[in-house]
Design a protein that fits this description.
The chain is α/β, with parallel strands linked by helices and 276 residues long. The protein has one domain: Arginase, Chain A (3-Layer(aba) Sandwich). It has 9 helices and 10 strands. An 8-stranded parallel beta sheet has the order 2-1-5-10-9-6-7-8, with helices on both faces. It has a two-stranded antiparallel ribbon with strand order 3-4. The longest helix is centred in the first third of the chain and has 18 residues. The radius of gyration is 17 Å and the shape is globular. It starts with a strand and ends in a 6-residue tail after the last helix.
Length: 276
């Protein structure tokens, strides 16, 4: 039986930018009431330091463990997450990958691959290493709690265009495909690649910095290039029509205007993402 759960996870500590907290709550306020929403509370202000190469690790790791426990207790079959930084992805993806025994493709719609490690990261910010952590190579306070790590063949990068050299080396060695620029042709190749790999279930990660900042500037890490809202809608619709989207997220929104919030709400509505 399908059991859908909305997850609100306004964590900002993984990028060291408190504005993300307010923007995440602002976006979530436009979606629906919170009666069926799991909320992972996060302090609006907090002193952040670097531990083992990761900023805020003593704040974000216990919260990840709590979120993972809460999800396990709720046991939803499908998730919609409105999250702060990409670091919020650790709990929902780890939960769903275990629930579905590794039979989930992770589609990473993002300008960045987030495949650094604490050692390779130029910034030490966890939002740039969360996908690598989900592969089992990250802070021990995370990886020790991930019961079923991802494997590279589950990952499909789309719209990615800003990579650090160590990420490029890892992607090449692990043979992780990149579908970029994100247009109708690459979307079709993406859908075909997932189907050929034998996946029926997918998790769609949407970092809003995947979008071209010329049309959507209100992301945490605006990155030149990228698709239009229309191309992103086409991609998400193609994915949700072809596969069972057991999880979808919107993260790293960093705006406060009604106009930019409505663009994201319309994106979700136009893509048939369950928001009521």
């Amino acid at each position: 039986m399908t059991q859908r759960l909305k997850l609100l996870y306004p964590e900002w500590q993984g990028c060291h930018n408190p504005q993300v907290h307010a923007s995440t709550l602002w976006l979530a306020a436009g979606i629906s009431d919170r009666n069926d929403c799991l909320i992972i509370d996060t302090p609006e202000q907090e002193s952040i330091g670097k531990i083992d190469g990761v900023f805020g690790l003593d704040s974000i790791a216990p919260r990840f463990e709590r979120a993972l426990q809460n999800l396990s207790e709720a046991n939803p079959s499908h998730l919609l997450m409105i999250g702060g930084t990409c670091g919020a992805e650790a709990a929902p993806i780890a939960y769903l990958n275990k629930r579905y025994s590794g039979e989930v493709a992770v589609v990473w719609l993002d300008a960045h691959s987030d495949l650094n490690t604490p050692t390779s990261s130029p910034s030490g910010r966890f939002h740039g290493m969360v996908l690598r952590t989900l592969l089992g190579d990250g802070p021990a306070s995370y990886t020790s709690k991930i019961k079923r790590p991802l494997i590279p063949s589950q990952i499909f990068l789309a719209g990615v265009r800003d990579l650090d050299p160590p990420e490029q080396v890892f992607i090449s060695a692990a043979n992780i495909p990149i579908f970029s620029p994100l247009d109708q042709t690459s979307t079709q190749r993406l859908v075909e690649a997932i189907a050929t790999a034998g996946f029926e279930k997918i998790y769609i990660h949407v970092d809003v910095d995947v979008l071209n900042p010329a049309s959507f500037p209100d992301s945490l890490m605006p990155t030149p290039g990228g698709p239009s809202i229309q191309d992103l809608e086409h991609c998400i619709l193609a994915l949700t029509n072809a596969f069972d989207a057991v999880g979808i997220s919107i993260v790293e929104y960093c705006g406060s205007s009604e106009a930019s919030r409505q663009l994201l709400l319309d994106l979700m509505s136009n893509c048939g993402i369950h928001i009521e």
